Amino acid sequence: MRIFSGIRPTGEIHIGNYLGAIKNWIALQEKNECVFSIVDLHAMTTPYLPQELQKNIMEVTKVYLAAGLNPEKCIFFVQSQIKEHTELSWLLSTVTPIGDLQRMTQFKEKSVKHKRDVNAGLLNYPILMAADILLYGTDLVPVGKDQKQHVELAREIARRFNKKFGKTFKEPEVLLPKTGAKIMSLQNPEKKMSKTDNPQGCIELLDKPDAIRKKIMTAVTDPGKEIKYDVSQKPGISNLLTIYSLFSGISTTDIEKEFEGKGYQTFKEKLSQLLIEKLEPFRRKKKELELRQTLLEKILEEGRKRAQIIAQETMKKVRKKMGLLK
């Protein structure tokens, strides 16, 4: 199976990114043909600092490699270095009704959040995402729940294109993680974990032990002291149980039994220690990669070359189907 997934280079990676995306990437690369991209063009649809973008791209590269991404088992590259992404995005825009784009939940949410910067790129974001996916003949797209709608639109765009110009693209399927698809903020368990919304509600993959402990111990919980997984009635403790389960490999049911009658503080102390231990290897590996800039550049260049071969073959077919000159 060919897998495609991408992540925006928007600063530090938090455990929500890891559990919802990176952890799945690491597992998928073992038995599938994986294409993973740092989607820097998507990062330009919301306010950003140009001088920070290149730095963030390299930071994301180091974090993903530190987390276990293996460039010998997957294709790993930077989106903007493959011009076929933007070319295909434009061509796909000619078969995409504007109404479909205006109905996208993320467009509506970000239009409210960035009222002074509702640009055409933000509206067309799903078309570029569809191009990212379809360019590589993707079978499965591992995403969080918030991106499922975009993959469904990519399927619809593929269907429209195939109907109009002849069979060209596969219709990719969504691959959601069984649990942990959406890790919530430690300070507001009704909202997705995000550093920009609340730094204290977000544990970064490279946070130091003291920071991890402080954030967990001050995490919002719920009335009562029972350690029980119930998202509707106890969203705070349910979020912490999900994090504990995914990092420990223990089911939430077994965790409930372990902490029966012990209260929130004891549970939080144990969760803090678990996260400190599990995240330490990432910090250590990231520190080693800081000194190997040449290696990082080589990995991205090799990934670019491999990705471009596939992208160019796809675009030859697309141009021919659409009646463009060679």
Keyword list:
mainly alpha; Rossmann fold; Tyrosyl-Transfer RNA Synthetase; 2 domains; 326 residues; globular; two-stranded parallel ribbon; three-stranded parallel sheet
What overall geometry do the principal axes of the alpha carbons give? Answer: globular
Radius of gyration using CA atoms only: 21 Å
- CATH architecture verdict of the largest domain: 3-Layer(aba) Sandwich
Number of strands: 5
Please identify which CATH superfamily of the largest domain we are dealing with.
HUPs
**First-last Cα distance:** 30 Å
Helix content: 40-55%
CATH class of the largest domain reads Alpha Beta
Biggest sheet strand order reads 1-2-3
Compute the average pLDDT: 92
User: Beta-sheet strand percentage?
Assistant: 5-15%
Major sheet details = 3 strands, parallel
Tally of structural domains: 2
**Helix segment tally:** 12
Structural write-up:
The chain is built from 12 helices and 5 strands. The protein is mainly alpha-helical and 326 residues long. It has 2 domains: 2-181 and 293-322, HUPs (Rossmann fold, 3-Layer(aba) Sandwich); 199-288, Tyrosyl-Transfer RNA Synthetase (Orthogonal Bundle). Strands 1-2-3 form a 3-stranded parallel β-sheet. It has a two-stranded parallel sheet with strand order 4-5. α6 packs across α7 (148-165). The model has no long low-confidence stretch (mean pLDDT 92).
Topology overview:
Layout: E1 2-7, H1 15-28, E2 33-38, H2 50-67, E3 74-78, H3 84-93, H4 98-102, H5 105-113, H6 120-134, E4 140-142, H7 148-165, E5 173-175, H8 209-217, H9 235-248, H10 252-258, H11 263-289, H12 293-322
Parallel strand pairs: 1-2, 2-3, 4-5
